[in-house]
Amino acid sequence: VQKDATTASVISDAAAALGLDPGRLYVLAEVKECGGEEWVLEAGDLPAQRFLLWPRKAQETHPRSLGFYFLLQERNHDGTIHYVHLPPVSKEQEAQLAARGFLPPPQDDFADLCNLPALNEGSILNNLRTRFHKKKIYTYAGSILIAINPFKFLPIYNPKYVKMYENHQLGKLEPHIFAIADVAYYAMLRKRVNQCIVISGESGSGKTQSTNFLIHCLTALSQKGYASGVERTILGAGPVLEVLRGERRRWARHAEATPPGPG
Ligand SMILES: Nc1ncnc2c1ncn2[C@@H]1O[C@H](COP(=O)(O)OP(=O)(O)OP(=O)(O)O)[C@@H](O)[C@H]1O
């Protein structure tokens, strides 16, 4: 591409070289960051001059994985993007394309269910199972945290983890119960409004344990855990709540078993 070649001439040269139908509308877009926005060039823009503004490394090697490339796109005649439906590729072709940087590397588990390529019961359960087998018991569904009871101790609750998740945007790090505690704690400080974390699950799923982890993290964040014994006091209320819950359950069972009397 010559220094003074306009976008229009680059498009027509590229279309001719690639044997594209000259009757169709093409645009040239500049991508400056991996996954970044595509900037559609005007017909009179000079692509070579834009290229000179890229970082030196991008000018020399411009691996697609780093971003910084031009994209020739076919458009519909009204200017909207023309989507081409490619034939499905085999697993092998997919791996080859990923190795060459044309496709993102295949991912076998997703930290957020919202990112699943296909969303259905099977794919959700599969994803949770795959993660569970990798000792990743937490998964997000947007801002909701799903926890699967590992029924064994995992070394992911020490103070290092409290620090790691402190004041972090949800979703930036691997899903964790401390991330939820942290979001609630900082939202409370920022908005000066009480926060509420709803924990739901069937019996034995780990609600009490999750509550304990939340309290542990919250007291550590407020740095009052040791000084005032807050954590001990709150956790000490747990058995009382358990007794009350047990009573309530017994009462509900009794109510179910007793046929309603007259009136
Ligand atoms: N994240 C976890 N890591 C290790 N063990 C866990 C975890 N979550 C739960 N457990 C274990 O699973 C068992 C049941 O958990 P827990 O008592 O919290 O369930 P629950 O949902 O409160 O049950 P219930 O509704 O019957 O009171 C406990 O022995 C607990 O130690």
Describe the 3D structure.
InterPro entries: Kinesin_motor_dom_sf, Myo9, Myosin_head_motor_dom-like, P-loop_NTPase, RA_dom. Residues 1-77 form the Ras-associating domain. The chain is mainly alpha-helical and 263 residues long. It is 43% helix and 10% strand. The protein is built from ten helices and five strands. The chain has helices at 7-17, 47-51, 56-60, 91-99, 121-133, 159-165, 177-191, 207-221, 225-228, 230-257, and strands at 25-31, 38-40, 69-75, 138-141, 144-147. The strands form two sheets. The chain has a three-stranded antiparallel sheet, covered by helices on one side. Helix 7 (177-191) packs across helix 8 and helix 8 (207-221) runs antiparallel to helix 10 (230-257). The radius of gyration is 28 Å and the shape is elongated. It starts with 6 loop residues before the first helix and ends in a 6-residue tail after the last helix. It binds adenosine-5'-triphosphate. Residues 149-154, 201, 203-209 line the site of adenosine-5'-triphosphate. Adenosine-5'-triphosphate binds at residues 149-154, 201, 203-209.
